[in-house]
Amino acid sequence: MNSIFLRTFLLIAVLIIVPFLILSIMFYSNTIRNLREEITLENSSILDSSVNIIDRTLTECDMMSSSIANNESAQMFMINNINTDSFRSLAQLAKTLPIVYKYIDSVYIYSDLYNSVIMDENPIPLDEFSDSGWLNGYKSVNSQRGVIIPRIKNNTY
User: Structure pTM?
Assistant: First the structure.
């Protein structure tokens, strides 16, 4: 009697446990596959979004630098000495852009001819200018095109 009971119990247990194990393994593998696909999709979406933001930011910076380069006062500052009113308009431009665009830390308008920088009301001679970490990158540029030179300021780029 014990043996029939035990055999029947084992048969019923096997008939219940084996399908349950098979279904559990299938569910687990399907869940893992779906989870990986979802993570890949989300990462791809985040990457596309980041690329779009970076492209837009670089395009805006390129347009701003072209706008400043085409500014008559900026051109006159780089070529000739100009009057105080033009310095003020350039200084206002250099102060306004970092306020409007949060990703811009500072704007310097540099005259290689006069070795001075505008960021305040009057040009500052480069030897009196405290933030000259960008100068080596500028001097190494040999292209007429605008160039973005990443640099570290306050231990971040």
Answer: 0.64
